Inverse folding.
């Protein structure tokens, strides 16, 4: 298809490969990141995920390969025409645009696939009508040839992680997926190809070596990770350019660090956002909200935020408040504030078509909505009925939208929840040719669909930041690569199903590996009716999610924790309190994330990639490096097998000591979520509080576990950006084998703790 490599040239860090039929550009961004670009659709290279110039000055060589050249004697590179070498990677370039990537030790990381594609399954045409008769879906997978695509070798043992919020197991090998942001209210199944988010980043962990690929194409895209054939995998799209980043690094954390270097990192959130959030679609009056807040406090359930779903609006019009059901929202929000409860309001993108409605009119006058190809404002429908879609790809629209949030800031609202931003549409899908803007040029729905939520989140984040000067708290349902810079996310409309509780673990772990570090699921399940047992088990998983929110659907059973009897209430309280005690640890993890991109919730494979026992582990996860959670995710189960990776681990509850690298049976009655602490850990903890900063300048409790370890703890005002100018403290805690804990100040720029108390659950064996 590309033909022979006829020539190549270098301009700065861009190498142009001239093939007979098409040129290819390799841009060396860092020693470990190389962009591969084929301008099929547009000449200009632009990204909606990557902002700013990511090129670092790198010394690399490009040279004609000697015939039959070898390197490190490990692998011959016969036929290789040109070799590009950085301090970390070697890229062997062949005719017909075949590229193979090696690490500097000569281990082959990733080879382009050369053979004929042989789908292992194709459905006979004659069966199709026959099968459909009983209502079966006919899945014609196998036909995976796309206008833009890349096919790479899949080696025996390769595992694939990431790709955002996709359903199914942690390891995506043998599955296929699509990136097309979709609002799907049906119960999410392992067989689903897409959900709300499109994050075209995945990590391939090999028996030896690891790499990542960020495939930066916003059109409808397809990923077939060996389902078509176990010997190769492919990624491709309906249109756009072939534009991908090969990401090297010596470990999985390094790959995540590199990916988030490229697309950005989740910024440090306000501290209160890490508290507990209560929500329900259906809380629809001032009285109900006051009642919920009162019951949270009466039942001693710590809580920092209550969410206002669409029912607070007047006829589902964004930037309005229903004054019949809410006498005075400003007073309500202020009263909540006095109780230590913040208000978060939902804001959807669909603007109601209504003459005289100021937001609608203003957008219309300024041409801010998406249009039909013939130039009319495009109308579809969402909650308010007929609605128009702000064209968030336009900087002017983002600025306008951002400024509208003064409506909420003046009322005292503390955070915004962006929903329905796939964008959802009740009158059928938006046609591909609806006209949207991509910054400075006209574009189409086909290209902008997958970044609609991303751009909406960006508009909200920037508007909020301008208005308040605080770290914006924006929740989004739809995402693209890089959305972590602007918003936190939840996994959308799950259901009160055990299978969805099970799914919460791989789904959140993969989101975390894909840059979305601050995430959560609707605790208890959104759709369908929860059960007391399911809710009790869900809070045991949910209390470790950065976004810790109980939310459910109108029409489903209420699921506030006090509705299920004393046992469930006290279990619920126990885990919310556990979370509150660990808030300094969670906040530290957010700080680490801002610096390295490492997520809060991590699959074990992230830190133990050489341990084959964790490569397919779907029912355990790490919180940072020190805590291992092995929740019960099945009805009626009160014992489970737990795998502990290498090292010494302690049972958090019983303090029993375990040697890692083995499986252990764990007792898990309804009130117990098996939880383990790594030897040498220092866990920074907070005293009991009903909400963040209920105690002004609380003391710090250091829970010191036996073993050797060191830990960096971070502290600032938890609210604004002063920390970026040095207004923070950083402490180093060294847990020594002589039983001493040494405390050093690494940075001083904020007030000190009034007191630091040590607590040793187990005495150090010296
Ligand atoms: C969508 C959201 C859900 C919300 C509902 C009503 O289904 O995913 O969280 O409650 O809309 O706004």
């Amino acid at each position: 298809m590309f033909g022979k490599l006829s020539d190549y040239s270098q301009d700065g860090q861009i190498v142009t490969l001239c093939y007979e039929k098409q040129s290819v550009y390799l841009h060396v961004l860092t020693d470990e990141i190389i962009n591969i670009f084929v301008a099929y659709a547009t000449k200009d290279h632009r990204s909606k995920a990557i902002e700013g110039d990511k090129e670092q000055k790198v010394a690399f060589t490009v040279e004609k390969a000697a015939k039959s050249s070898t390197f490190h004697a490990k692998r011959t590179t016969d036929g290789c025409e040109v070799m590009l070498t950085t301090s970390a990677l070697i890229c062997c370039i062949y005719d017909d645009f075949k590229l193979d990537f090696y690490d500097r030790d000569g281990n082959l990381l990733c080879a382009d696939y050369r053979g004929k594609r042989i789908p292992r399954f194709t459905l006979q045409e004659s069966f199709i009508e026959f099968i459909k008769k009983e209502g079966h879906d006919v899945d014609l997978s196998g036909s995976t040839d796309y206008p833009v695509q890349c096919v790479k070798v899949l080696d025996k043992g390769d595992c694939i992680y990431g790709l955002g919020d996709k359903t199914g197991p942690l390891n995506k090998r043998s599955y296929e997926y699509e990136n097309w942001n979709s609002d799907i209210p049906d119960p999410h199944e392992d067989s689903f190809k897409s959900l709300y988010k499109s994050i075209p980043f995945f990590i391939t962990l090999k028996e030896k070596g690891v790499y990542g690929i960020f495939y930066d194409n916003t059109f409808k895209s397809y990923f077939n990770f060996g389902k078509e054939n176990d010997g190769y995998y492919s990624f491709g799209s309906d249109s756009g350019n072939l534009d991908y980043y090969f990401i090297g690094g010596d470990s999985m954390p390094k790959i995540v660090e590199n990916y988030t270097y490229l697309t950005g990192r989740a910024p440090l959130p306000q501290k209160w956002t890490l508290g507990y959030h209560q929500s329900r679609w259906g809380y629809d009056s001032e009285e109900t909200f006051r009642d919920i807040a009162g019951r949270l406090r009466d039942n001693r359930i710590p809580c920092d935020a209550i969410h206002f779903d669409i029912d607070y609006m007047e006829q589902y019009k964004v930037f309005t408040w229903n004054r019949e059901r809410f006498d005075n929202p400003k007073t309500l929000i202020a009263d909540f504030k006095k109780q230590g409860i913040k208000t978060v309001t939902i804001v959807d993108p669909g603007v109601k078509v209504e003459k005289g409605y100021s937001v609608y009119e203003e957008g219309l006058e300024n041409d801010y909505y998406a249009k039909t190809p013939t130039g009319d404002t495009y109308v579809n429908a969402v909650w308010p009925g007929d609605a128009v879609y702000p064209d968030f790809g336009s900087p002017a629209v983002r600025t306008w939208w951002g400024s509208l949030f003064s409506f909420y800031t003046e009322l005292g609202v503390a955070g915004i929840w962006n929903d329905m931003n796939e964008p959802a549409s009740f009158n059928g899908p938006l046609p591909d040719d609806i006209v949207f803007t991509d910054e400075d040029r006209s574009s189409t729905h086909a290209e902008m669909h997958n970044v609609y939520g991303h751009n909406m989140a960006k508009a909200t984040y920037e508007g909020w930041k301008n208005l308040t000067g605080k770290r914006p708290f924006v929740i989004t349902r739809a995402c693209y690569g890089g959305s972590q810079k602007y918003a936190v996310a939840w996994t959308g409309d799950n259901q009160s199903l055990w299978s969805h509780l099970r799914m919460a673990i791989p789904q959140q772990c993969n989101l975390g590996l894909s840059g979305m570090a601050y995430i959560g699921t609707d605790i208890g399940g959104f759709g369908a009716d929860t059960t007391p047992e399911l809710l009790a088990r869900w809070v045991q998983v949910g209390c470790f999610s950065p976004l810790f929110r109980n939310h459910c659907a109108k029409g489903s059973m209420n699921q506030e924790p006090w509705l299920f009897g004393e046992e469930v209430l006290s279990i619920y309280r126990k885990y919310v309190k556990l979370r509150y005690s660990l808030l300094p640890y969670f906040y530290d993890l957010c700080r680490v994330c801002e610096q390295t991109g490492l997520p809060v919730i991590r699959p074990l494979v992230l830190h133990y990639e050489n341990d084959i026992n964790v490569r397919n582990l779907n029912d355990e996860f790490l919180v940072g490096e020190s805590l291992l959670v092995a929740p019960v995710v099945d009805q009626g189960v009160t014992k489970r097998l737990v795998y502990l990776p290498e090292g010494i681990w302690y049972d958090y509850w019983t303090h029993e000591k375990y040697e890692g690298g083995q499986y252990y049976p764990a007792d898990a009655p309804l009130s117990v979520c098996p939880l383990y602490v790594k030897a040498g850990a220092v866990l920074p903890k907070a005293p009991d509080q009903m909400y963040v900063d209920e105690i002004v300048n609380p003391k710090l409790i250091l829970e010191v576990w036996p073993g050797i370890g060191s830990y960096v703890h971070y502290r600032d005002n938890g609210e604004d950006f002063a920390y970026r100018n040095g207004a923070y403290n950083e402490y180093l805690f060294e847990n020594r084998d002589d039983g001493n804990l040494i405390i050093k100040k690494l940075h001083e720029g904020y007030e000190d703790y009034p007191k630091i108390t040590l607590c040793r659950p187990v005495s150090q064996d010296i």
User: Anything to note?
Assistant: Residues 452-468 form the longest helix (17 residues). The two ends are 67 Å apart (CA to CA). The pocket of alpha-D-glucopyranose is lined by residues 281, 309-310, 346, 419, 477, 492-493, 526, 551 (CB under 6 Å). Residues 85 and 678 are 39 Å apart (CA to CA).
